[in-house]
């Protein structure tokens, strides 16, 4: 989409007018998400800034395409970064051992790899059958097997479990066959 390339180039060029537009159109959703998930307004601002920087750095290194609107992509990157922050703070609180100090560059690199993993997963999820897509979407949303069975007229929860297993296997096979998989396995 040309509009996405326009936004990506604006980030690289530091076009303050376009960046202000992104703040106006997307930041309120990000702030709401962060605040609803144990964050503060300052956390939302930090996550939004990191996301813009991460996207710009990645696009500068390797031109990539966004298969959705730019705002949706930016929002997803922000959500992933905030979830990552929550997981890091959870580890710090519960682990009394040595806390590894992560440099900003390493943190950015890890975030980019995680975003690429998410994109690969989402892309391959779209390639499986409609039935599998529906089943896995419900499964990932933690809908009980009993509800999935009712919704899809399966005889039992066991049938749903078998279907989830087969669909996950189909999805994993697609992911593993992709040329990007090996570069995203380990950080």
Automatic annotation (TrEMBL):
Record's keyword terms, sorted: DNA-binding, Sigma factor, Transcription, Transcription regulation
Stored Pfam families: Sigma70_r2
Chain ranges of the RNA polymerase sigma-70 region domain: 22-90
InterPro entries reported for this sequence: RNA_pol_sigma-70-like, RNA_pol_sigma-70_dom, RNA_pol_sigma70_r2, RNA_pol_sigma_r2, RNA_pol_sigma_r3/r4-like
Domain of life of the organism encoding this protein: Bacteria
Family: Belongs to the sigma-70 factor family. ECF subfamily.
UniProt protein name: RNA polymerase sigma factor
Organism: Pseudotenacibaculum haliotis
């Amino acid at each position: 989409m040309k509009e996405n390339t326009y936004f990506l180039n604006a980030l690289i060029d530091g076009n303050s007018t376009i960046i202000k537009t992104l703040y106006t159109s997307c930041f309120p959703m990000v702030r709401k998400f962060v605040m609803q998930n144990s964050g503060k307004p300052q956390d939302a601002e930090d996550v939004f800034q990191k996301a813009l920087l991460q996207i710009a750095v990645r696009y500068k290194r390797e031109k990539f395409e966004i298969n959705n609107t730019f705002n949706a992509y930016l929002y997803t990157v922000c959500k992933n970064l905030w979830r990552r922050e929550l997981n890091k703070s959870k580890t710090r609180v519960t682990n009394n051992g040595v806390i590894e100090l992560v440099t900003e560059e390493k943190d950015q690199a890890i975030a980019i790899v995680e975003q690429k993993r998410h994109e690969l997963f989402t892309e391959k999820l779209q390639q499986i059958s409609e039935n599998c897509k529906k089943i896995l979407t419900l499964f990932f949303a933690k809908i009980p097997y009993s509800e999935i069975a009712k919704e899809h007229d399966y005889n039992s929860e066991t049938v749903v479990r078998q279907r989830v297993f087969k669909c996950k296997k189909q999805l994993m096979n697609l992911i593993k066959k992709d040329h990007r998989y090996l570069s995203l396995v380990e950080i």
